[in-house]
Amino acid sequence: MSTEKRTLTTSWGAPVGDNQNSQTAGQRGPVLLQDVHLLEKLAHFNRERVPERVVHAKGAGAHGYFEVTQDVTKYTKAAFLSEVGKRTDMFARFSTVAGELGSADTVRDPRGFALKFYTEEGNYDLVGNNTPIFFIQDAIKFPDFIHTQKRDPRTHLKNPNAVWDFWSLSPESLHQVTYLMGDRGIPATLRHMHGFGSHTFKWTNAEGVSHWVKYHFLTEQGIKNITQEVADKIAGENPDFHTEDLFNAIEEGDFPAWKMYVQIMPLEDANTYRFDPFDVTKTWSHKDYPLIEVGRMVLNRNPENYFAEVEQATFSPGTLVPGIDVSPDKMLQGRLFAYHDAHRYRVGANHQMLPINAAKNQVNNYQRDGQMNFGNNGGGSVYYEPNSYGGPTETAAAKPAPLEVSGMTDSVPYYQEDHYTQPGDLYRLQTPEEQERLVATFVGGLSAVDKEDIKLRQIGHLYKADPEFGTRVAEGLGLPVPGLTETK
Fold it and tell me: Which residues does the annotation place in the binding site for heme?
């Protein structure tokens, strides 16, 4: 930090004569309304906090780069993936989902895994989690789901009855809940967890050939998790444990890194695959669609100012570049609107102008005005399109590849509604020790629920996933498995 003496000024650049005493009418006052420095200082202080994020409020971030390590041009024409060895500046933000800005880092919760790539074709955001799946299939259920994770409007306390009532009435959540209640529900640090795009996206190459794609970021630090007991102890001693760990690691030169892989599915396979590939509560088998290496993400620079770079960072899965497009995933489709709209509300209509969000390439459009427009607002250039004055025009090569759609308009679920096979597989894949901890976590969580029918309903889902799984949780709660009768 520079030690050069500088003059304190107001926000409009005028020097401040006294920053210790308000202007008063005589020594005892009252304070004068004409003290514009005082008014500005207090008014700005009142507005220092933008509304916190409704979800993913507590987070940590860092700058870094992404380097391509394998040729994937046969799958996508995205410029930042166009050649091996190419590096692109990026920013990453990791977060919990349900807690407030001051909540503990080590809660049992999914972690947001949001990445911003500053490419030569504009910014590309990949906004995922540290889990490859999610709790619900359709964005229409998202506000209700998040309400269950927040505070009860009457008691202002977390409400396990609401959490488990919603989950037990939404069997699609079972896969993610099983993942969350397992060991990976509490990562040891933000550096020791994988990241996933979670949704299905579409890649298109220069010839116009498209494939469905899923993103995987595998930590080079290895997976490390902590038990509920250790997490609770850390939460009481250092609620900012993950934030501190990431900052210190980078500050000490121990730069965390992740290898990026994708799964590639031919478009036509989506019509016949045994699970709906657009259902975000399901995964694609690695045997069916093996991981293909793409590149490497390295975080090597801490923010200089948390608010400017982490709190004001805005991400949306709708921030796309040519060669990368969306899929019919219903959760993704809802997020395309909701994320940009949340930023317009929380940070402002011109949030893309903030340095942390601004594209590195030149931005040309006809958007004008709006709160906090601190650019030149288009100057005196033409402000509509089409025009005869040489204003920016569209580029046909940037159009997304067409996708055939058909059918009757209706409110319908995914065609494949098997909510139990993959959670059962996840349970059976675990070691006996991991299963024991998983069962104990379910028992502990459901023990806080008041209504027995909620517990029984959840046990029924677990039993359908794996009879042993459901029976062990039922025994731990001292309850029968619903629908089963004793035989002699």
Answer: 339
